[in-house]
Structure prediction request, 278 residues.
Amino acid sequence: MPAHRARRRLTRTLPLAAALAAACVLPAGCMTTPTGRHQIILVSASEMNQLGDQAYAQVRKDTPVSGNAAARRYVQCVAGHVTAVAKAGYSWRVTLFQSKEVNAFALPGGRIGVYTGLLPYARTQGELAAVIGHEVGHVIARHMDARVSTEMLAGVGLQVLDTAIGGSGQAHQQVMSALGLGAQVGVLLPFNRAQESEADIIGLDLMSEAGFDPRESVRLWQNMASAGSQPPAFLSDHPSGATRIEHLRDHMPQALEQYRRARASGKNPQCGSAPVKR
Prediction:
């Protein structure tokens, strides 16, 4: 299925999922996210981990790994500090992909991908921690699980998982789209407004707990806005950059207190800055 058709289908199904999540009419499938929002999850963690591994293998097959050893060490260092406080039960692994795409992703099962095109915008360790924390936040909150469940609720049916796991074709692409991967490698589909805002706050908490200055999350989005008339894919339009910054600032006092406690406990990441130039 082409990416634009998958995107339209997912957009059409989101109101149904939102309504069911708000009412939580299926108790067995109802879960509460770390911020207290309700959503419907109809797939198991093991199934999502399989799908995450598949999605990562697809990206790894079609996108080269960066040969810049210094950049790889930098990304791995930042990701290591963030994931150490994530408490999600995964063995997190990060790969730096050589691509001009200004983007990153994290998948169920613990796979994180960062594209080299992001590094000129995430110029400090704190700015990169904000991105990685945001992506890990999507996984912790099981946003991809909810999107796959949405496809099932929309009438696609349980057979989608049976076909998609280890399969190919339309059902496979539907599930990959729900995970956030478009038909083209490097095209990452945006989450909805509630999920994006939630991932922002979870990411802010993660970076603060790991010892990164949460104020750098605001600088990250300011960097993104400086991209001009063609903003990077990571800068999705829901919410807007200005709304995102305001939301982050509202949560900043709590994040700063968490950051001070982390520093007092000895957490002081020393990953340096991105070894690349814009």
About this structure: Residues 22 and 38 are 6 Å apart (CA to CA). The longest strand covers residues 93-97. The chain has a mean pLDDT of 79. The radius of gyration is 18 Å.
